[in-house]
Target: Cytochrome c domain-containing protein
Amino acid sequence: MPRFILLFSLCLLATSSHAQEDGAALFKTVCAQCHGPQGEGNEVLKTPSIANLPHWYVERQLTNFHEGKRGSDAQADPQGALMAAIAKTLNPDQITAVASHVQSLTLVVPQERILAGADVKAGGELFYERCMECHRYNASGEQLFGSPPLVGRQGWYLLAQLKKFKSLHRGNAKGDEKGAKMVMMTTLFVEDEQVMKNVVSYILTLNPP
Model:
């Protein structure tokens, strides 16, 4: 291998390694206190598991928080408001670094498998009719559509996000095109909390053992 190519390759590896180290350090300093050292989340703090979320999704959400597209209403969304305050302390390079680290974390499988009183069969029908096209048949997400994986997220968190979309406390900000799509879906096809519990419970069954 020509010497300049070898040197260039070593530089790229060093840069990548440095970015990973920076991302890990940022995560430990900025994220772990609420989301846990493994990104497993904390129900008491109402912080979701973020472990293994794709970097492109984490980066977009942190940017949304940074730009005020999420977390602008502290009364309706206190957790989002806290995230917005934290995201505003990060520059674009730091956001990219921490997003890459989050993706490297091992998926944490929720312990819960069904929400109380849910109709999993009805939830599965709604999922295949309205959710599968973007989030895929196994809820693994699809970058092309900007749709994140739903597996690995706790049921209480998924339920809370559906409520926020339907009540216009998430996804209603100007410029949040992906969020706006979820607002439309919940407005048109999610009648009430029972329907939310049904589809969330079905999603929980898609998690690995």
Remarks:
- The radius of gyration is 18 Å.
- Residues 1-108 form a domain with the Cytochrome Bc1 Complex; Chain D, domain 2 fold (CATH 1.10.760.10).
- The chain has a mean pLDDT of 91.
